[in-house]
Amino acid sequence: MAVAMFDYMSQPHSAMSGTIKIGHKDVKTGEMSSQVDIPMFGLGVYLMKGPGECKKAVSHAIECGYRLIDTAMAYGNESEVGEAVRESEVTRDEIFVVTKLRRPHATSYDEVIRRCQESHDNLGIGAIDLYLVHAPPEDLEVRPQVWKAMEDCLETGLVRSIGVSNYGHHHLQEMKSYARIMPAVNQIEINPWLQRPNLISATKEIGAIPMAYSPLARGHKVNDQDLAEVAKILGCTPAQAAIKWCIDSGSITIPKSSNSDRIEENFHSQSLDISSVLEYFQSMNENYISGWDPTVEP
Ligand SMILES: NC(=O)c1ccc[n+]([C@@H]2O[C@H](COP(=O)([O-])OP(=O)(O)OC[C@H]3O[C@@H](n4cnc5c(N)ncnc54)[C@H](OP(=O)(O)O)[C@@H]3O)[C@@H](O)[C@H]2O)c1
Question: Helical H runs in 28-141?
Fold first, then answer.
């Protein structure tokens, strides 16, 4: 992996040929803690629960060219993701696997270490490429120790990078008071109907990369009339237009599909040029939350 170092307060990352080079810096000592290259596009596997469904989707996605898979202990399919990665003809170091610490497990230092080891074992692919706190721990008191455990998972090599998910501006700011290593990523819902320019800026300001989950608003907006018009202008499908808008917002983008054709369709969104329709997209923002939104919690 090539070296890319930066301080978390300075310019955080640079895009290069579909990947982002990212490094973490120990903010106390200034020593390098880790570095990883993160693909800008991947497959989400939430709600793939039927036996074999997740493995089949991940295997097909890897064959198509996907190089990032986003799972979570809460999705109950880490072991199928691991099987697909192990059985793939693509080498392990070319595939980037993200998983997450469940919110009900974010209760103490020891539990985080134990759960990280459990995810690591479920996946069975060596170090987890990116481990995320799924949402800000509900008990405010435990947040520093939960993050300390995440940092220690990184330093002991269980994981190769650490980050957060569903963190609002205030959660990210608060981390500056207790983090030794700031998060590499903040995974949040981002799509044309929930554009979040301020939270994207706050994420970048602390040196993290935004990761857009639910780029299709969980499928709720695939038949949106405005999106259909934009897609017609671009000569692509509505899903492709929405996904490319997310990518062009500077966010790592992880649409979910269990369907082989749609997995391919979504992959090809990466080559679209949407520059001629940006104004249409701007007018689609309506702060639509498709599922949950812990970013606004205390
Ligand atoms: N950190 C968090 O709290 C959090 C929360 C939510 C999601 N996520 C992550 O983000 C990933 C993506 O988000 P998501 O699963 O919520 O929703 P999404 O990707 O916005 O939408 C998925 C839905 O859209 C459908 N779909 C996919 N491609 C399509 C296409 N080309 N045309 C029409 N319909 C299409 C899928 O159905 P088919 O499968 O039948 O194609 C599914 O019903 C998740 O899988 C998960 O990894 C994280």
Answer: 53-64, 78-87, 109-123
Tell which atom from ligand 1 comes closest to the C-alpha of 132: 1
Pocket mutation for ligand 1, best pick of 130, 213, 268, 293 (most atoms within 8 Å of C-beta): 213
Residue spans of beta strands (DSSP E) within the chain: 14-16, 19-25, 32-39, 43-44, 68-70, 96-101, 130-133, 162-165, 185-189, 209-213, 252-253
Helices vs strands, H then E, count in the chain: 10, 11
**pLDDT tens digits for 146-182?**
999 999 999 999 999 999 999 999 999 999 999 999 9
**75 tagged catalytic:** yes
Distance 159 CA to ligand 1 centre (A): 25
- Tell me the CATH architecture of domain 14-286: Alpha-Beta Barrel (3.20)
Per-residue pLDDT averaged across 46-51, rounded?
94
Q: CA 159, CA 243: separation in Å to the nearest integer?
A: 28
Q: How far apart are CA 74 and CA 78, in angstroms?
A: 9
Evaluate if residue 32 carries a pLDDT over 70: no
> CA 205, 208, 214: angle at the middle one, nearest 5?
110
Distances (CA, A) of 46 to 43, 70, 181, 246: 10, 8, 28, 18
